[in-house]
Design goal:
single chain, 97 residues, mainly alpha, 2 domains
Length: 97
């Protein structure tokens, strides 16, 4: 008869993805409260969302967002050495006029 110390019992290791899922599951209330009062742009809206579907799944990349919180000066850009950025501004102006 074999002793119990010689028995090979498989050890199940939790993979990294499962650890992340468990972390969020175990701290759900804390994370939800943080998300509702966060000052990070958009996080409170995501926390209040009733669905996980996005209307923007088919956005072509590269996509560019000009944030109203970070104003830029078109004149400074057009007078700058950044030719690629000038092209972006000119393309934006053509599409929105």
């Amino acid at each position: 008869m074999a002793s119990s110390t010689n028995v090979n019992v498989p050890v199940t290791k939790t993979n990294f993805k499962q650890k992340i899922v468990n972390y969020f599951r175990n701290n759900k209330e804390i994370i939800e409260e943080w998300a509702q009062v966060s000052s990070i742009h958009g996080i409170p809206h995501a926390a209040d969302a009733k669905t996980t579907k996005s209307r923007f799944d088919d956005v072509d990349f590269p996509a560019i967002t000009f944030c109203h919180s970070s104003p830029y000066s078109v004149k400074k850009i057009l007078d700058s050495q950044y030719d690629d950025l000038k092209k972006v501004i000119m393309a934006y102006n053509l599409l929105n006029t």
